[in-house]
């Protein structure tokens, strides 16, 4: 394999910092190649977005596992000497897997990887040779509730997102022909036609062109301009498109 191991030095152990390999190539190279490479997941854009749109660093500073998170026995002593922080495993799994993926940790310990995997909607297999640790891990993982699916859907940039035509909203019954689309202040109203074009006054065109006409401007993103009226108030048509995209991503 080309490239080098990228090591993250992370102070997670009680006694010593440990090093874990998180990537087989330098980050820039991995990103440049990730479209072509089919063998692994690297959620570069999601990591960047979570880091205020700056490329995530490869050295992570994460606090040790203490407080409520630390498993203790009835005697008040730590169940395991080197229980890892959930924040570390969350970052590892969010950067390198997708919901539904199978995660395996051959050194399960207290099941931190499994607990985080379940919370993040991943499947999990763990191996542990010590029955006390294995039992503690089983109970811990059983008590975890997965997060709501909508909070786990894979991150997509506008460029990555699959194209959805406005007519698909009509084909899927999300918007009916004859519906009135309005802008956020309800100053403009356009009629949805059966063919996926919309009509404002005598003008017929795409959601973008008619949005531009309504505003008297040269260009408009119709997805973020037009709304449908619902009992709960206005709903941006871009939210309907996002629903279709998250369904596509789950396939
Ligand atoms: C560093 S600890 C893992 C801690 C875990 N990440 C956590 O957060 O609790 C490594 C674990 O691997 C287990 N282990 C070591 N060698 C093993 C083997 N050959 N098969 C199964 N488990 C093993 C040890 O008993 C220990 O609990």
Explained architecture:
The protein is of the alpha+beta class. It has helices at residues 27-33, 44-50, 86-96, 112-119, 131-142, 166-171, 207-215, 237-250, and strands at 6-10, 18-23, 102-105, 123-126, 180-182, 189-192, 198-200, 203-205, 227-230, 233-236. Helix 4 links the parallel strand 3 and strand 4 (123-126). Helix 4 packs parallel to helix 5 (131-142). It is elongated. 20% of the residues are buried. Residues 1-30 have low confidence and may be disordered. Bound molecules: S-adenosylmethionine. Residues 80, 82-84, 107, 109-110, 112, 127-130, 133 line the site of S-adenosylmethionine.
Keywords:
251 residues; alpha+beta; 8 helices; 10 strands; disordered N terminus; binds S-adenosylmethionine
Query: What is the helix fraction of residues, given as a range?
Result: 25-40%
Mean pLDDT: 85
Rounded to the nearest angstrom, the radius of gyration is: 24 Å
Shape: elongated
What can be said about the biggest beta sheet? 4 strands, antiparallel
What is the H/E string? Answer: EEHHHEHEHHEEEEHEEH
| Tally of strands | 10
Task: Work out the helix count.
Answer: 8
Layout of helices and strands:
Elements: E1 6-10, E2 18-23, H1 27-33, H2 44-50, H3 86-96, E3 102-105, H4 112-119, E4 123-126, H5 131-142, H6 166-171, E5 180-182, E6 189-192, E7 198-200, E8 203-205, H7 207-215, E9 227-230, E10 233-236, H8 237-250
Parallel strand pairs: 3-4
Antiparallel strand pairs: 1-2, 5-6, 6-7, 7-8, 9-10
Helix pairs in contact: 3-4, 4-5
Residues 80, 82-84, 107, 109-110, 112, 127-130, 133 line the site of S-adenosylmethionine.
């Amino acid at each position: 394999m080309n490239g080098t191991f990228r090591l993250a030095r992370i102070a997670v152990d009680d006694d010593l910092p440990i090093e874990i390999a998180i990537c087989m190539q330098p980050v820039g190279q991995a990103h440049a190649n990730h479209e072509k490479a089919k063998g692994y997941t690297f959620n570069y854009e999601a990591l960047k977005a979570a880091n205020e749109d700056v490329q995530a660093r490869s050295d992570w500073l994460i606090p040790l596992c203490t407080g409520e998170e630390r498993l203790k026995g009835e005697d008040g002593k730590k169940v395991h000497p080197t229980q890892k922080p959930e924040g570390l495993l969350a970052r590892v799994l969010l950067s390198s897997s997708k919901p539904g993926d199978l995660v395996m940790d051959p050194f399960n310990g207290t099941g931190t990887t499994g607990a985080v995997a379940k919370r993040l909607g991943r499947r999990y297999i763990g191996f542990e040779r010590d029955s006390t640790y294995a039992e503690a891990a089983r109970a811990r993982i059983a008590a975890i509730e997965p997060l709501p699916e909508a909070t786990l859907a894979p991150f997509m940039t506008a460029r990555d997102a699959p194209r959805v035509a406005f007519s698909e909203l009509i084909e899927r019954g999300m918007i009916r022909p004859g519906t009135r689309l309005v802008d956020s202040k309800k100053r403009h109203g356009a009629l949805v036609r059966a063919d996926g074009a919309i009509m404002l006054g005598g003008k017929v065109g795409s959601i973008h062109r008619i949005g531009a006409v309504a505003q008297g401007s040269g260009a408009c993103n119709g997805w973020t301009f037009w709304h449908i009226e619902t009992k709960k108030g206005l709903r941006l048509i871009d939210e309907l498109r996002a629903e279709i995209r998250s369904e596509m991503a789950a396939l």
